[in-house]
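[job 4417] fold queue: 2 targets
>>> target A
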Amino acid sequence: MKIRWEVVLVVVSVLLTLIFLLSLFLGRNLLVGNKNIATKNEANVALSQNIYSKCDKFNEKDKRFACYKEVSLYAIENGKSILGLMELTNSSKSPHLLEHSIGRAILITANYDLKKVRVKCASSCSPAYYHGIAEEWAVYAPKRLNEFKDFLLTYCSLDNPKTEWCHHNIGHFYLAVNKSLDKSLALCDALDADNNFLECSYGVIHEQLIQFGITNLFNMCSKYDGRVKSACYTISSRLFPQWLSDTIKMDDPLKICNDSYGQIPEKLNHCYRSIAWVIGQKNVSPNLEWCQSVRDEYRNLCVSGLKNPESFWDIFGCSIGGEDEGVNTCSQ
């Protein structure tokens, strides 16, 4: 019997088509869990490029952060190195949150073995890496604070407030566990040294912004007393311009500070100093003429702030007193 080659070719063609369609089907189902991350094949290609580019298209920071977390976890699970991901942070829209997501991913892929997490990063990671670990440990083991403290002691000293932001990390943990600004700041207030208290409070309010945004934050500060009230207003006024940095328009750069009139006591208002730093990150020099649009009672504060920008990473040291005293109350 003669072989009909045209039939064979048709059969082979059909089989190849079926195999191709099947591979596409399987590939499309190997998703990371979010349509923004694309298929496994596409993600593997992106691993050699900037895998976070799709996340940066989100205007809302909470959605951007959620995307970062999924992408970082997928990337680590598929062999991308920590340093390889860290190299992408400077080109991302929210470098700090991206570093949070990398710390979280490392803890998960290390099966929550804190010793491995420390070894994996050693001296190559920023404080934000450890913030992400604090957040994820709070989800995984909210009642095991002592284990987290022991982990912190492998790279910093809780007795030395100048070392690696130890209490700042604990502040992140407190808020991530309690979901309550009141409870978390009370835990920080239990620390005797003002330096440690401030660092802890900074972590708490930083995590408050990440978890809940700016909503009602200044009203919450108003109900506290003493150093808690001072820290709440001061830290919030420093952090919220940076949290809202994506919304700053250069045709009215001081709007978010001007909109906070009356919500923050003048002595504790660091908004203009903070926004001067944010604008500087956009490669724009603050212009003192902008302060002409500010109310008379706030103009000096505006001018002083724009002349003296402060960074997201400045440490308070011993400069914050009570709301009315404005004196040095830090432990010596």
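>>> target B
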Amino acid sequence: MYAAAHEPGSIDEVLKGLGRTDGVSIRGIVIPPDPGQAAIRRLPLSDSTVVLTPLLVPDARPISNAFPDARIVLIGGTEDSKTTVRFDRSGAMSSAGEAFGRYLASRHATGRSNAGGGAWALFLADTAGRRSDLESFRRGVAAADGPEAGDKVHYLTYTVPPDRDELRSVIQEAKGAHAVGYALFVGSGNSYCMDLLAGTDSKVVLPDLMGTEAYGDRILCSVEEPLRSAVNAVIRAGKKLPPEITVPAVVVYPAGSAAPAKF
């Protein structure tokens, strides 16, 4: 079985700790962007299970054409006649919302929050999946203990990605209102928002692919789609792969942190 990615570092991270699982040997393989048919045909993929990470989804069809006996698995892809690994984000988004609500309750309970500050949640809701993420997050916030948790979150939703001017205006308004927390789910604008929030003591909830290490203790938690869990799920499925494999997303807390306690 092979797990493929564009960069050696990416595949090393996926395979870390997997080794040989359930008697299946897993090997990493690097496929450069736009490899071309000649390079694809040189890959050792005949009659193999090949797991393609998200950035390799566009290469699925030429790989499948070159190796018709290979079992192609796409993580996050939608190609026809391939097995797709889909991440179920509902539980993780709800848990992240509950952690966010508990954090807000703790700020109010300890007197560390300006009375009018609250928190701001920015969501790009341009697809059914992203709208589902928003609703799951709302449910989690509503389930959090503390009278201030649910009604102190200002939700802003977008049907198209907000530009930098719009995000700058929103963050300035939130900072002026002494916001104590942010949930940032606006796609590529997330990192720009984090730059604007530098120097504040607010906590932030972020989506996957942002990571937590770069922002240190500014992160309350992040919602991640674990590639290693996806690879393990493919191993468990064996050679008779179904059209879709569902893997739960997870909530990740920075090193040394834990979920906020109930208040």
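[job 4417] complete. Note on B: The first strand starts at residue 2 and ends at 5.
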